[in-house]
Design goal:
Order of helices and strands: HH
Distance between the termini: 21 Å
Helix content: over 70%
Largest sheet: none
Structural class: mainly alpha
Shape: rod-shaped
Oligomer: single chain
Number of helices: 2
Strand content: under 5%
Radius of gyration: 15 Å
Mean pLDDT: 91
Length: 61
Amino acid sequence: MADNDKPKAKAEQAKGKAKEAAGRAVGNERLTAEGRAEQAKGDARQAKEKVKDTAKDIAKD
């Protein structure tokens, strides 16, 4: 698939963390929730990549 999914996952996590922090700083619950959602999306993408890597490793053996 795409080779840029790992960095994309890290970017989503970082962007989400920044949004969540900004939302907390200004007291905006919606922004905080959006940040958490982006972090979760990045976490899911990262987990998918780990599964793909594990499957590749198993296929090599």
